[in-house]
């Protein structure tokens, strides 16, 4: 492949007057056809459909709007959205306007809720693309109403109003609701179709904080009602709230559960989590293998030293692929159906495994970083929770860290 063409002149980009139209510069994701390295993420589309069905069944009357922010939690938003739309999802949620535009460009016609709202412009895009923005300040109402008028778009344009019931992130605080409701009446171009709030502690073992937030949400709904603001749908639940069976209201916004990862720590799980199937599997292969005597150093900084005659395998995945450097000397990967410990420092492009106890481990053997493996020595599974525990983080960060250097392959098993 030829080297990239001349990069854009940064000064000219900076000096350009801010235009109403947004240009989204998309970093290039490694394409399956470019994949030479055996490292890749396989996304099981049947697992996504299965998880949607499990959640729909559990949500009862409430509609299920999968959250596909951050490139569908690293799974690739266009492919995930197409799969779920065909499987009957009622609508989608994203965080950013850019993410909603990407879905529209991929041919997604379902309603899309832009949860962070439009900030820094883009209201014209919201209207032209038929997106539903979340609103929480007066400036957004003014800008959206202006866009609807200027574009001569069909009015009223639907918005969802976000209420802050205890997250202190986005949303109209309860104390400001009455004046906000009054200002809504100044904008006949807009219609509040939905009311939403976000729960801070839905995955906690105790339900008090969530119950408190839901009481405030009811209070806010009543206040708005007294000021003539009545919405068709109310929604609050993320994956954890949905799985715990709290607060389904009229719609639910599951993110991580759609991808088959429980939002709840092991040991505190409700039974439903066991029905979910992790959709992503990150696999690579052994590209080098060596025999070392006892007492030999392995990797940068010699952070591991063999304690016995050892077989050390090298796999081409490192922190630039999203494998946290915190996994240095911590955790495992699967080889031939059994666990091989990670030894030494995780480096940018490579990681070493101790395969001394994996009989027959050889060049080109498949290695699983997360997901299940069937091998001659057994069957095992490394879930996103296990990786997160070793990397001192949460499964959400594990999924969204799989970098764009790792091509995504879609499977329909
Ligand atoms: C990310 C997000 C969700 C989904 O959260 P999960 O825990 O992944 O289910 C729902 N609502 C809002 C507002 C979010 O930002």
Describe the protein's architecture and organization.
The chain has twelve helices and 21 strands. The protein has helices spanning 10-15, 45-59, 69-73, 77-86, 97-105, 123-128, 138-151, 177-184, 208-226, 239-243, 384-390, 395-401; strands at 40-44, 63-64, 92-94, 112-114, 132-135, 157-164, 172-173, 190-196, 233-237, 251-252, 280-285, 288-292, 297-298, 304-305, 310-315, 332-335, 338-343, 351-354, 366-375, 378-382, 408-411. The strands form three sheets. Strands 1, 11, 12, 15, 16, 17, 18, 19, 20 and 21 form a ten-stranded mixed β-sheet that branches. Strands 2, 3, 4, 5, 6, 7, 8, 9 and 10 form a nine-stranded parallel β-sheet that branches. The longest helix has 19 residues, at 208-226. The protein is elongated. The protein starts with 9 loop residues before the first helix and ends with a strand. Bound molecules: pyridoxal-5'-phosphate (PLP). Pyridoxal-5'-phosphate (PLP) binds next to helix 10.
Short characterization:
This protein is an alpha/beta fold.
